[in-house]
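Troubleshooting: if your tokenizer reports a length mismatch, compare your output against this known-good record of 491 residues.
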Amino acid sequence: MLSRIVRPTAPRLASVSKWPLTLAKLTRPFATVDGNTPRMQPTPSRTRATPISHDRATFTIRVGLLQVPRRSQADIVQDGPVFNGKSFGAKTNISGEAVFTTSLVGYPESLTDPSYRGQILVFTQPLIGNYGIPSTARDENGLLRYFESPNLQAAGVVVADVAEQYSHWTAVKSLGEWCAEEGVPAVSGVDTRAIVTYLREQGSSLARITIGEEYDADQDEAFIDPEQINLVHKVSTKAPFHISSSTGDSHIAVIDCGVKENILRSLVGRGASVTAFPYDYPIHKVAHHFDGVFITNGPGDPTHCQDTVYHLQKLMESSQIPIMGICLGHQLLALAAGARTIKLKYGNRAHNIPALDLTTGRCHITSQNHGYAVDTSTLPPDWKEYFVNLNDSSNEGIIHKSRPIFGTQFHPEARGGPLDSSYLFDTYMESVGRYKRNQAIFQPKRDSRPSPLLVDLLAKERVGVVPTTGMENLLRMGEAGEQAATAARAA
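Known-good structure output:
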């Protein structure tokens, strides 16, 4: 089992040879075969840290051609609104997709959600930061108690007013200190009502945060569209990692597209040991060693993950294993089934969105963070819509008519709440239990529990994930290319 999980053969797609880290690098020196070995505690990288900047700051939104189809590009650039404020984070300039959230609480969880990679997050709540930033304490499973990933994931932060003085028993630093440490620029003192009104009317748009400089329209050419980048590749683990559960004997294979800590906690807390794989891992080749497959949330356009879609197609063709997907995982499941996805005008990002369960008629208040949705009109006959958004009628879930496979666009595990739909994890685990019992009938000697050797050899934390730079590296590459082109023309 170990050799198959760590070194699968993939004649057509992903293989271990494309991973930067080999098994030898994942193995601790003088490792012992002990299933209770504590999880490794990674030291956060501070190479991007800067002192807190209190300089003037500019938040610029660039209008896209799709929003104003009958105008020239020159007019569009001039039409982009410019908001002047004050910096309270890192002194660095970035660009990304401007999106907004109406969540009242949970900003540490939101900002560490890998689904926000490449995005500038605008908070509609007028005051942000009043309860500070908590510590990196971990629970009994080694999972972060207060964050959804080890680093701040958003490219930038925009608020109306920031609390420089904080008060909470878990807090160890201010929001500004955290942003500076993580190398993420943050802007306050801008009219977020006007920003959100603009984004609702025009749709999610490219934007740029500039610290300590006057706005220069010529720099609009430096805007980088994160939707054109495979962001999942940036946030997914680069090699498998494992988390053991002491309360059950199920074993779940997690396809990590940018997994949140509380998804892992929700599975482990229900008695499932978890082995997480890179998003493009050929999961169909090792699924028979597991009791269930889980596809996580993640950032960006789901159509970038063609390898994942192909592997899921092969999995559903070859196995009856239970499958659950959340957010991006739900969209990838739909693509694998043969459906299509669409880009929403401004997405759904909040903690209070009503979703109707079409099988029971009950409404649940849900937490959401997505810019794409499944087009249910393209679902094949053996699938049906599971949940629907009562605000905009967009799809919130799909379910197979005869097999234990379903996905939800919202987050049942929502950290910061609400927990109305957390029962879906119980539903999934019930399917996992039935599958495990049925497999035991036909294969009495089957044992899906991870071996102590496997537990000891695999990492205990996501591997090789580089913290966000908000597209700044791509900007530098573009600037370097422009300088090289200018030098060549001068020569």
